[in-house]
From TrEMBL:
Recorded coiled-coil stretches: none
SUPFAM superfamilies xrefs: MFS general substrate transporter
CDD domains: MFS_GLUT_like (cd17315)
Protein name as catalogued: Major facilitator superfamily (MFS) profile domain-containing protein
Pfam families per the UniProt record, alphabetical: Sugar_tr
Record bears the keyword Endoplasmic reticulum: no
Domain Major facilitator superfamily (MFS) profile: 104-503
Location, primary (coarse class): membrane
InterPro entries documented for this protein: MFS_dom, MFS_sugar_transport-like, MFS_Sugar_Transporters, MFS_trans_sf, Sugar/inositol_transpt, Sugar_transporter_CS
GO CC term (a single one): membrane
Lipid bilayer topology: Multi-pass membrane protein
Length: 503
């Protein structure tokens, strides 16, 4: 049988540790799997043979790098499901990981906690910081303190994708810690509105970058079989961050200056995020894209153990991660090749925000106060707890029920609970019960949101986007989130103020 020359497009064994899977030219369209085996050969003690369906290739000469006389081989791998852009997804893994990704998922989740904390911290603190800074009667400046964070997040979300492609995921996290820490410091020490707005802008840039790279990094380091569960952790920790901000506001009633401590607290996770990322492995997917094969193998050993190196490297190379096709530019996202899937990603966040979550996250305390709830801050904390509880349920269902069914259930529940909330304010016969009904409706709304509309979009984006557009497409979709969020927060503030004046 004719020998096969395996160069850049085939197998290359070098230093006894590196193996690339067969290129697409070895695939038989009628076959279901390719099997790689070994035998004796005088060239280096091993020979490779390949069988795809009914075709066999061998004996195969193996090129061995200098200073090594040991050849590696690729074990038989699982059937691959072809994605639209040439990506492949393993259907079943044949071996278990001996490493653990959980500590590194936890480090990345600090970015999600900061995301939620900075969103929720202004909920209880706004009234007190407004009095301290002398803008208690200026609704416009109060609105800017809220929405400047969102403007910064819009900029950060678009920037995060480019930074992640250029410098890698872990280095982008390190860069992200700078505006997060400086922003927290400026907010905590602000003596005027200008400093507060600058601090909120920097913090917004930081959480915008986090919103783009946290789900991306978690998705790329998570094993396929638990990717759904680990991916939903991003939303869970966002909810925990919001809850932490609401709970942190409880001492405000007895200490009006406590709002400064609330902002200062957010600097702690920022520093921990930077420290944790200095020892966290880079995404193997990104390293293979950058042709940094040695570093990719080291990262895989750290994440999954030595026994998974060959399998994961074969998966990454076979899925086109190491192809010569360059990363897509921003304009490529709007080409006929990608426009449909990018539109789906952007629409997920568009409808997520248009559903009205802004009102709950930023102004639930004020809404409950308007409804006559005695302990408005405590009621908001209850809402935050419902958010965490619902997301925990979603995490357990994500890989069992599927993304689509959770989205349908979530949006249906949100519609019904918002109907209850609006009725409690508009029907005069229910006026005596408006307070409890407002709390119940809001809790049910947040619970419904956390079951699907909250966690699913960020989890789904890395799964539906092809490799070369993944970082930028995630950033664009999250940019839609922040643009709508920015507009919605100001509208909610104006409506709330009108309601308070009429009341």
């Amino acid at each position: 049988m004719q020998a096969i020359n395996l160069g850049a497009n085939g197998f290359l064994v070098q230093n006894g540790s590196r193996v690339f899977s067969a290129s697409s030219r070895f695939k038989n369209k009628n076959s279901t799997a390719c099997v790689i085996g070994t035998g004796k050969d005088t060239s280096c003690g091993l020979r490779l043979w390949s069988r795809c369906g009914g075709l066999e290739f061998g004996p195969v000469g193996v090129r061995v790098g200098a200073g090594s006389s040991v050849c590696s081989y690729v074990k038989s791998r699982s059937v691959k499901a072809q994605a639209s852009d040439g990506d492949t997804t393993p259907v079943k893994s044949q071996s278990k990981s001996s490493g653990s990704v959980l500590p590194y998922v936890g480090v990345a989740s600090l970015g999600a906690i900061l995301f939620g904390y900075h969103l929720g911290v202004v909920n209880g603190a706004l009234e007190y910081l407004a009095k301290d800074l002398g803008i208690a009667e200026n609704a416009v400046l109060q609105g800017w303190i809220v929405s400047t964070l969102l403007a910064g997040a819009t900029v950060g979300s678009f920037t995060g994708g480019s930074l992640a492609d250029q410098f890698g995921r872990t280095k982008t996290f390190l860069l992200d810690a700078i505006p997060l820490t400086v922003g927290a410091f400026l907010c905590a020490t602000a003596t005027n509105v200008q400093t507060m707005i600058i601090g909120r802008l920097l913090a917004g840039i930081g959480i915008g970058i986090s919103s783009a790279i946290v789900p991306l990094y978690i998705s790329e380091i998570s094993p396929t079989e638990i990717r759904g569960t680990l991916g939903s952790i991003n939303q869970l920790f966002i909810c925990i961050g919001i809850l932490a901000a609401l709970v942190a506001g409880l001492p405000l009633a007895s200490n009006p200056l406590w709002w400064r401590t609330m902002f200062a607290i957010s600097a702690i996770p920022s520093v921990l995020l930077a420290l944790g990322m200095t020892i966290s492995p880079e995404s193997p997917r990104w390293l293979v894209q950058q042709k940094k094969i040695d570093q990719a193998e080291k990262a895989i050993k750290t994440l999954y153990g030595d026994g998974k190196v060959v399998e994961v490297m074969a998966d990454l190379s076979a899925s086109g991660q190491g192809s010569e096709e360059q990363d897509a530019g921003w304009f490529d996202l709007f080409s006929s090749r990608y426009f449909k899937v990018v539109s789906v990603g952007a629409a997920l966040f568009l409808f997520q925000q248009l559903a009205g979550i802004n009102a709950v996250v930023y102004y639930s305390t004020s809404v409950f106060r308007t409804a006559g709830v005695a302990s408005d801050v405590a009621a908001s904390a209850l809402v935050g707890a419902a958010n965490v509880f619902g997301t925990m349920i979603a995490s357990s269902l994500m890989d069992k029920k599927g993304r689509k069914s959770l989205l349908i259930t979530s949006f249906s529940g949100m519609a019904l609970s918002m109907l209850l909330l609006s009725v409690s304010f508009t029907w005069k016969v229910l006026a005596p019960y408006s307070g409890p009904l407002a709390v119940i409706g809001t809790v049910l709304y947040v619970l419904s949101f956390s079951l699907g509309a909250g966690p699913v979009p960020a989890l789904l984006l890395p799964e539906i986007f092809a490799s070369r557009i993944r970082a930028k497409a995630v950033a664009l979709s999250l940019g839609m989130h922040w643009v709508v969020d920015f507009d919605g927060s100001n509208e909610v503030k104006l409506l709330l103020l009108i309601n308070l004046e009429e009341g």
